[in-house]
Design brief:
Layout: H1 7-45, H2 47-58, H3 62-90, H4 92-109, H5 116-130, H6 133-142, H7 147-158, H8 160-178, H9 187-209, H10 222-238, H11 247-251, H12 254-282, H13 284-288, H14 294-322, H15 326-342, H16 349-370, H17 380-394, H18 396-412, H19 416-440, H20 451-459, H21 462-471
Helix pairs in contact: 1-4, 1-7, 1-8, 1-9, 1-10, 2-9, 2-12, 3-4, 3-5, 3-6, 3-17, 3-18, 4-5, 4-6, 4-9, 6-17, 7-14, 7-16, 8-9, 8-14, 10-20, 12-14, 12-16, 12-17, 12-18, 12-19, 14-16, 15-16, 15-19, 18-19
InterPro entries: MFS (IPR011701), MFS_dom (IPR020846), MFS_trans_sf (IPR036259)
Protein name: Putative tartrate transporter
Organism: Rhodococcus spelaei
Amino acid sequence: MTTAGTPADADLEDTALEQRVVRKVARRLIPFLAVLYFVNYLDRTNIGFAKLTMSDELGMTTTMFGLASGLFFVGYLIFEVPSNLALHRFGARMWIARIMFTWGILAAALAFVPNVASLYVVRILLGVAEAGFFPGVLLYLTFWFPAKYRVRLMGLFLLTLPASSAIGAPLSAAIMQWGDGLFGLSGWRLMYLVEGLPAVLLAFVTWFYLTDKPHQAKWLDDEEREWLVRNMDAEKASAAGEHTTPVWRTLRNPRVIALGIVYFGVTYGLYALSFFLPTIVAGFKETFDTDFTVFETGLIVAVPFVIGGVAMVLWSRHSDRTGERVWHVAAPALLAAVSIPVALYLNSPFAVMAVVSLTAIGVLCAIPVFWYLPTTFLSGVAAAAGIAMINSIGNLSGFGAPYVTGWLTDLTGSAKAGLWVVGVVLLVAAILVVALGRTAAGRFSRADRHPTEAAAAVADPALDRDRATASR
């Protein structure tokens, strides 16, 4: 029997403090950041719904639409790493507020483009303005949450991805259908205006609400703040040493590049769904003799993302509970790879949407677990550069997926060829992450240890060798 003051009592007290701090920080940051990302992702992908009526007004082909969708990522990719380094230097509060203000202005400006050429230009500028937001938030979360909690909390934050489609699809469709002609604007123009302005307003809220680092958190009491600072500093010290590596070397790190390729494969599937699912559903009219209004199309598009969002939260928790990461990325990527090409060979709209839902589950379940991987060997300024580099390589798919899918659709007269490409790219991602996990030899689980244990292992690598020998 233990008595007061024993080590067991101290452990219980420390555990209770840890859970209290993590819960308080999560409640403070995750919902707010999720709202920001909801608006961010909606403004990035609402062009998929605008296409339903914008194409006729501007005279766009499917290939031109794919180019307009993908050009966003030209400016985005060029400025991604510099933007994340600026966030690391100037702080998340100021830099995220700046990103939101400029992207909101440009997202609303899409309502006034007179032709396809100007649409191209504004989409490029929107990418420049938005560069660094998503990797910046990922970096910001590593300042506040111990590694063993990150995947489940990342899953909650990234629930915004399916939510922005599940809620945003019918919202965009409703504005387009019932707001057509309001203020003299076409429905798609009004949608851009209405959905762009919230980012401008939230920029001011961000400036006053966010806290850059744990030691500045006045909303934690002294004991909670000291515990968080101590543990996050210990985890930073436990990283494998890359945080002392120059930025240019981090950008050339083979693991960083390989993870970027994996992320390219996963997001290729995400963007193919986000940009073209409204078109696929609208195409049911010709294929299956159905007739849906724009709003009904929005409701149907929402279904796979609702199902995928629930699966993503459960899968993230399962990954944290088991401590396994690599197969928690590979298995859902494989599910998406197998399911997406099958969808358009089925003979009913219900069967197509059921299989598309499996694809959404696969893509969405892979993403939050994936973003755990780079944080196991990068921290500090190297994390800022490395995470941005991975996101930049991965988001090349944002250009490739809509453009290649649109081009193949125009070329063949069917979406089947484009979706086969999606399946192949996802399959490559699943194979590569398994291969990378094998060569990393356990590196992807190192940060799951208690921070003091991991820090000791860095100080004395023999501890790792002894533990590995004992496990064999």
